[in-house]
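Our preliminary data section would be incomplete without showing what the modeling component actually yields. Below, a chain of 397 amino acids is followed by its predicted structure, encoded as C-alpha cells that our downstream tools consume directly.
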Amino acid sequence: MAPKKKSPKKPKVDKEAASITPVLVEDALLNVEHLNHLNSLYDGGSNGFHCTATEVEAPDHGASLLEGMNQMRQKRFLCDLTIATKTKSFKVHKLILASCSEYLHHLLQRDPQLQRVELRDVSPLGLTTVITYAYTGKLSLSLYTIGSTIAAATQLQVPTLLNVCSSFLIREMAVENCVYIANISSTYGLNQVKDATRKFIRENFLEFSNTDQFMKLPFDQINELLMDDGLQIPSEVAAFQIAVKWLEFDPKRVRYSADLLSNIRFGTISAPDLVNHVQPVPRMMQDPQCHKLLVDAMNYHLLPHQQNSLQSRRTRIRGGQRVLVTVGGRPALTEKALSRDISYRDTEGNWNKLTEMPAKSFNQCVVVMDGFIYIAGGEDQNDARNQAKHAVSSLSR
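Predicted structure:
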C-alpha cells in the first residue's frame, strides 16, 4: 500500500492575539468615526458651531532656540565653520554667524562650502564677544575691553552690536573719559557717539579744561574746540585763559600761540577786561601776531560807529540762538507802564532782561542788521491825544 500523504500542518493561532486584533481594529474605527464627527461640527453642521483660526505664539521660543544652539556650539555639535584669529580658533554654525554678520554672510554667499575663515587682525577677546552676542544676544561691556569688541564688530560688520556699543559709550560718558570715547568714535566712525561726545564737551568745557586729559590734547583737537560757536563758557575771558593755560603747559607749544588765540572772540570782551586780563599776558605783547589780535579788539571798541563794518568771527558771540526779543513798549494803559527793558524769551518760555534802552518808549521802529538791534523813533509818553508832542527822534543801537 502506498503510504498515506500527510496533510500540511496548520499554523498555530495565538488565541490571545486573535482575541485582541479585532478589538484594536474596532477601536481605530471608533476613533476615526469620532474625528469625523468633530470635523462635521467644525464644518458647521446643523448642530455645529462657528470657528476661526487664531495665531498663537510661544513667548520663550526664540530664547529657547538660541539657548539650544549655544549648547550645541559648546559641545561642537553640527558646527560647520571655523573662525580663526592669530592665536585661537572657534567652531560655530554658519547659519547663526551669517544671520548677524554681513561680512560672513557675503563670504558664505559666494562660497557656501567654505569651512574656515581667517581673521588675523581681530583679537580673540573681541571675536569671543561677537560670537557670544550672536548666540545669546547678550554681552558684558566695559570701557577697558570695548575697543576690541568694536574692532571685531566693525570688521565682521555686525551693525546691531555696534549700536549696542554706541549706546553704552554714550551712557558711560564722563569728563574723565570723554577724550578716550572721542578717540574710539573717531577711529571706528561711530558718528552717533562722535556727535554726543562733541555735545558733552561743549556743555562741560569749563570742567573738562581742568583735567589732565585736556592738557594733553593735541593742537588740532583743542583748536577745533575753541573754534566751536556753541562752546558753553561763562565768558570769553575764560576761553582766553584756558587757551593760555594749554599753551604754557608745554614750552614747545609756543609756535601755536597765534593760531590758537585767533579763535578767541576778543571783540566780545569789554575794553576794561581786555586791559585787565588780556594785555598783561606777556605773549599778547611779545608775539606780533598775538599783539595784532589785541589791537584789533581795542580798535573795535574805540570805533563804535564802525563796528557794523568790522564784524568778523572774533566779534561773534558764542552760543548765539534765534530768540524772540521785546523792546520797551506799554504793557498797560497808564503812563507808568512804559518800559525801557529789552528782554528775550529763553527756550523754556521765560522772559529774561537783556539790557535797557536810554529812555522809556513805545511805538518805535526796530530792525536787526549786522548782528545789532537798531531802535529808532517812537513815543516817550502814553498820551494818544497828542502823539506828535511826545515823539522821540533818537536812534539807539
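The mean pLDDT is 81. Strands lie at 81-84, 89-92, 116-118, 325-329, 339-345, 351-356, 365-369, 372-376, 395-396. Preliminary results of this kind motivate Aim 1 of the renewal.
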